[in-house]
Inverse folding.
């Protein structure tokens, strides 16, 4: 019996191939594999037997634990890589109750999720990587979320340790209900929720904008609303982003504190103002 290292294009992973009678494999070179050859992934126990170490020692070494020497860690990890050993993530999840994975949950509608550019998604990835956790992406079909009997797989099955929900406008009520009902570990991104959310302080941004214009000497300061509805009528579950209302309220508060009149108007009505003025938008 002998062992050969082989690359399987079907599964894009390494396998250890067991050949009971290598001499009978005509034309088969070491490391080659035909479809008749039995292949399987090497287990941690087999890796330990090949190295002459206990399975516990191999487990510590593969995790980078200081319970074993640096030389042993390096030797085990090098041999594991050579033989194509891969940890069984399902078994690990059953043991410790963690998957080592966080998901960014996006909408299938492009105007409901923030754009995750290279720097932003790179920052999330690097922060997770420093904690030995990987990142995955899940896109939810908004149309199906209106069906109270529909349950997306990432919400239906426990398969990640947490979710970063990237919905900022027209958030389906069903999605909010599912997160609350099942007590799912989630953080809402750029969305103003009762809890477990992170978003910019647009109210303070509106105040700062007015204060900055006043420091420049302006007193006729208007608020330009480029949306078709009045800001006070905005509902974050059906209309635009929460920031529109918060920024407008911040502008109003700063103007009232300075005893200045509030001037808000739609973009189409801007020509009605003949006096020169500064604009917050």
């Amino acid at each position: 019996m002998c062992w050969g290292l082989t690359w399987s294009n079907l599964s894009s992973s390494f396998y250890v191939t067991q050949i009971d009678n290598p001499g009978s494999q005509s034309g088969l070179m070491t490391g080659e594999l035909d479809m008749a050859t039995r292949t399987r992934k090497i287990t941690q126990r087999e890796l330990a037997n090949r190295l002459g170490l206990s399975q516990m020692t191999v487990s510590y070494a593969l995790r980078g634990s200081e319970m074993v020497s640096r030389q042993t860690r390096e030797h085990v990890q090098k041999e594991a890589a050579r033989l194509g050993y891969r940890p069984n993530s399902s078994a690990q999840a059953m043991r410790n109750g963690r998957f080592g994975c966080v998901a960014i949950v996006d909408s299938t509608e492009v105007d409901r999720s923030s754009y995750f550019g290279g720097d932003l998604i790179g920052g999330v990835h690097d922060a997770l990587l420093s904690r030995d956790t990987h990142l995955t992406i899940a896109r939810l079909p908004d149309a199906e979320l209106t069906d109270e009997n529909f349950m997306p797989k990432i919400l239906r099955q426990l398969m990640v340790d947490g979710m970063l929900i990237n919905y900022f406008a027209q958030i389906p009520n069903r999605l909010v209900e599912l997160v609350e009902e099942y007590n799912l570990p989630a953080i809402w991104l750029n969305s103003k929720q009762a809890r477990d959310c992170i978003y910019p302080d647009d109210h303070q941004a509106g105040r700062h904008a007015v204060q900055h214009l006043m420091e420049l000497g302006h007193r006729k300061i208007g608020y330009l609303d480029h949306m078709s509805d009045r800001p006070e009528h905005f509902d974050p579950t059906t209309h635009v982003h929460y920031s529109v209302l918060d920024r407008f309220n911040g502008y109003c508060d700063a103007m009232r504190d300075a005893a200045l009149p509030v001037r808000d108007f739609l973009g189409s009505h801007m020509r009605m103002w003949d006096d020169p003025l500064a604009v917050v938008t």
